[in-house]
Amino acid sequence: MRLAHQMALESDLVTADMVEIQEFPYLGNKYNVYGVPKTVANETVHLEGAVPEPKFLEAVLKAGSTVNA
Amino acid sequence: MPLLKDKDREYLKGEFTRRLTSPVKLLFFTQTLECSTCELARQIYEEVASLSDQISLTKYNFVVDKEQVDKYRVDKIPALVVEGAKDYGIRFYGLPSGYEFTSLIEDIFDVAAGSTRLAEETKEALARLTQPVHLQVFVTPT
C-alpha cells in the first residue's frame, strides 16, 4: 500500500486508493481478487502480492504508457 | 472508549510533535445510514486527528456534500483523503486496520513533508509519466 501512496505523492499523474476488499466485495469480484495485496493499475495492469519498488514501478509505467481503455 | 492503546497514543503524539511541521488535512466522507463501518472509521480518524494540532479532520456527507464528493472524486464510503499542501491523490476506502493503520500514519508524515523515501531512480521515472495512472490496492484487515 505504501508504495502506491508514495508514488501518488511524487507524481501529479498518479492517484492511489487503498480498498478494503471485505467492505467492497463487488470490486473483489470485478477485479478477480483471490489474494491480497493485489494492485490494479488503470484497469489493465494487474500485480499480485507485495512486490519490491522496481517491480511496482514497472507496473505503474506500463499502465501509464498504455492508452487508457 | 478509545480505540488506540494509551501507550500507542503517547507514542504517536510524540512522533507527530517531533515530525509534523506542516498541516495535514484528513477529509472523511461518510453517511449515517447504509455504511456499517463508517462509525468505526470516524472514531479512528477522530482519534488520530486529536493527537496533533497539525492534523485537522473535516467530515463530509457522501449524499449531501456533492461538491466535495465530485471535487475529490470519491465514489464509495467510508473514504478518507489525506491532503497536504495539495491533494496528492491519496485515498483510503474502508477501514485502515492493522498494517494499513501504519500506512495511514506514514502517509501523514509524507504528506506533511511533501516528499517520500522512494529511490531517486523511481522519482525520475515517475517524472517522465505522460498519462494518468490510477492505482487500486486491494487489502484485507490484518
| Mean pLDDT rating of chain B | 95
> What is the ordering of alpha helices and beta strands of chain A?
HEHEEH
The biggest sheet of chain B, with number of strands, parallel, antiparallel or mixed sense and barrel status, is: 4 strands, mixed
From the N-terminal CA to the C-terminal CA of chain A, the straight-line distance is: 24 Å
Number of domains of chain B: 1
**Multimeric status of the protein:** heterodimer
Mean pLDDT of chain A: 94
How many angstroms does the end-to-end distance of chain B come to?
21 Å
Low-confidence stretches of chain B: none
Principal-axes geometry of chain A comes out as globular
Descriptive keywords:
heterodimer, A: about 70 residues, alpha+beta, B: about 140 residues, 4-stranded mixed sheet, globular
Could you walk me through the main structural features you see in this protein, from its secondary elements to its overall organization?
The complex is a heterodimer of chains A (69) and B (142). With 69 residues, chain A is an alpha+beta fold. Chain A has one domain (20-69). Helices cover 41% and strands 22% of the residues of chain A. The longest helix of chain A is centred in the C-terminal third of the chain and has 13 residues, at 53-65. Chain A is globular, with a radius of gyration of 12 Å. Chain A starts with a helix and ends with a helix. In chain B, strands 2-1-3-4 form a 4-stranded mixed sheet. Chain B starts with 5 loop residues before the first helix and ends with a strand. Chain B is of the alpha+beta class and 142 residues long. The mean pLDDT of chain B is 95. The relative contact order of chain B is 0.17. Chain B has 5 helices and 5 strands, in the order H-E-H-E-H-E-E-H-H-E. Chain B has a single domain (6-127), classed as Glutaredoxin, CATH 3.40.30.10. At the A-B interface, helix 1, strand 1, strand 2 and helix 3 of A face strand 4, helix 4, helix 5 and strand 5 of B.
